[in-house]
Amino acid sequence: MTDWYMLLAAALFAIGAMGILVRRNALVMFMCVELMLNAVNLTLVSAGRALETLDGQLATFFVLVVAAAEVVIGLAIIVAIFRYRETASVDELSELKG
Amino acid sequence: MIDLLWLAIALPLAGAVFLHFFGRFMREPLAGWLATLAIGASFAVGAVAAVPFFAGTGETEHLVIWEWMPAIGATFELQWDPLSALMTLVVTGVGTLIHIFAIGYMHGDERFHRFFTYLNLFAASMLTLVLAGNYAMLFVGWELVGLCSFLLIGFWYTRPSASAAARKAFIVNRIGDLGMLIALMLIFTTIGTLAFTGVLDRAGSELTGGGATAIALLFLVGAAGKSAQVPLYVWLPDAMEGPTPVSALIHAATMVTAGVYLVARSASIYAETAFAAGAVAVIGAITAIWAASIAIAQRDIKKVLAYSTVSQLGYMFMTVGASAYVAGIFHLMTHAFFKALLFLGAGSVIHAMSDEQDMYKMGGLARRMPVTATTMGIATLAIAGLPPLSGFWSKDEILGSLFERGGMYGALWLVGLITALMTAFYMARQWVLVFWGKPRWDEGTEPHESPRVMTIPLIVLAVLSIFAGLVNTPFRYALEHFLEPAFEGIRQAHPPEGWAMFALMAGLSTLAAAAGVAAGWLAYNRPPEVWRRFQESFGRLWTAWENAYWVDDLYGAVVVAPGRRLAEFSAFQFDAKVVDGAVNGVGALVYRLGSALRVLQTGYVRNYGAGFAAGLLVVAIWLVMRGLS
């Protein structure tokens, strides 16, 4: 039973990782990161369930809280960049390249 | 009073420091008078401190100013004895007169104040040398006077010849200084201290034989460099590129006598080694006659005096080598007076002739500048050794002492006598060429007597040149008595006793001097065509003298040219190709490595992400594989 949850989580993680690698839009990459985080959450919850402890769910709450904070900052940065550059494509953000 | 002796060094040093910072804000003569005041006050300090010695009640005293390196006996310690007192008085006394003269001579020079800064610094350095109570401090003064000499020879540094002469003087002195430094190390390893009292008292007990000979010979190397003896004399004639007061003060009266002072100061070491003492005397004799012969054929008024100085220093070396220390110091003193006078007189002439130094273009100046002509005439007769002028007494004592010692020194006596003849000849030649006969000036030259600020030092020095010899005559050896405490317990050579021998010696040297002066007068008190023919009659010998035996060319070919080639190889072959090659090679390697690796840095986040993911995958696979096996 747990295997299926694990496989689903792995699939979601792979989709997220792939999205990060191939997409250029910062917003979409951001959503992919969220997808990967939630894949991990799913693993934690299902593993906790299988092992009949609350540790997994406990860890998941932490991840949710941190992810929420991260979303606030990340989205703010993306909006700021968009306002300044009129684009959200990461390939065009090259000011720091030597 | 001895407690205040440090002022003798401190006053000119303070003058130099003050003028260095504030001299440029002063009107022209003020800087010069300030410097004169500093060294004059230094003379006063020395004179007052020397009173006990004149009274015959003085004892050698030591004054420690600062514990520098007490472990090796190298403190800043002044030694006050008759020898250092006499040197101090000569340096500051002649120095004061030359300072005054320079106020007139340097008039209009845009670096007027800087000149006096250096002169005062020189005075302080020279006093450090002669007042030192140990060899380390003596060496400090030794090096400092070398530095001042360099600065002052190259004073007009925009002239390439002046800066070349300054470098030459510095480098040749360096060779001598190395010998000096090694001697100091040897002394320290043998005896364990550098203090005069410690070293000189133990010469004979702990310092004997080969060790004493080695140290004495190394001192000779150092002294030959500083005092311009064969084979290191070549810098002194070139040093005439400096302003004439510098030639008078440093390159005639004071600094160049440091070698004589060193040998006299180390008398008890030389007493241990007849070989080294003989070497000093022989080097001196060779230098004396060698330089005198070159001086005969020079046309530059200062070059004659420069070679004459080298020759007279050879005289002093010959004397102290024969352990006639009092005679050597006596001649050092009288020479300081009449040679300073000759140089200042030459400066006065050069000043009047608008910087013309060629004697063949002078003549008949006596009418235009009577004071200079008279005073220089006195100095000429004094250096020639005609009685009763000062040079006669000191030269006579030298020749008498050499004769009395006999043996090898008897031969040196003959060399000294011939040199005296040559000296009288070239000095008479110079005086006649410059002051007598018909003018041979370039068109438009209007010579005039120098201002009083220049002539008064000439007159004072002329008086000294006449009477200074009377301090040590066979009638009354006052200087010998004065110097007695400094040479206590050292066997010295003396002139022969008895009036008959004195008359013989004095008669011979007077004859030589008179013959030389008469020959110079007769040969050159004629129209130029006649004396030119006279010179040509010497043939190639005259050419050799005129070109100073081509020694500079020889050194150029043997020492300078190979050195230059080595330097060029080092600079343009080894440094440019090997050293720079290695450095540039490392740089190029890093650069190429960088260019190869920079293609990995695309700047796209996803590329880095892909690398990161691939790495993660590899690690994951590895973990899984390991877990399975």
Notes on the structure:
- The complex is a heterodimer of chains A (about 100) and B (about 625).
- By secondary structure, chain A is mainly α.
- Helix content of chain A is about 80%, strand content about 0%.
- Chain A contains three helices and no strands.
- The model of chain A has no long low-confidence stretch (mean pLDDT about 90).
- With about 625 residues, chain B is mainly α.
- Chain B has helices at about 5-20, 30-50, 50-55, 80-105, 110-130, 135-155, 160-190, 195-200, 210-225, 235-240, 245-255, 260-265, 265-270, 275-295, 300-320, 325-350, 370-385, 390-405, 410-435, 450-465, 480-485, 500-525, 530-535, 540-545, 550-600, 605-629, and strands at about 60-70, 75-80, 470-475, 475.
- Chain B is globular and about 125 Å long.
- In chain B, about 50% of the residues are buried.
- The mean pLDDT of chain B is about 90.
- The chains are: A mainly alpha (about 100), B mainly alpha (about 625).
- At the A-B interface, α1 of A face α26 of B.
Global shape of chain B? globular
| Shape type of chain A | elongated
Mean pLDDT value of chain A: 88
Strand order of the largest sheet of chain B: 1-2
User: In angstroms, what is the radius of gyration of chain A?
Assistant: 16 Å
Structural class of chain A comes to mainly alpha
Order of helices and strands of chain B: HHHEEHHHHHHHHHHHHHHHHHEEHHHHHH
* Span of the ends, CA to CA of chain A: 51 Å
Number of extended strands of chain B: 4
How many helices of chain A does DSSP assign? 3
Which regions of chain B have little confidence, pLDDT < 50, spanning 5+ residues?
none
- Mind describing the biggest β-sheet of chain B? 2 strands, antiparallel
- Overall pLDDT metric of chain B: 91
Poorly predicted parts of chain A:
none
- Main beta sheet of chain A: none
Structural class by helix and strand composition of chain B: mainly alpha
Written as H for each helix and E for each strand, in order along the chain, the element string of chain A is HHH
Radius of gyration of chain B, rounded? 31 Å
Based on the coordinates given, report the CATH architecture of chain A: Orthogonal Bundle
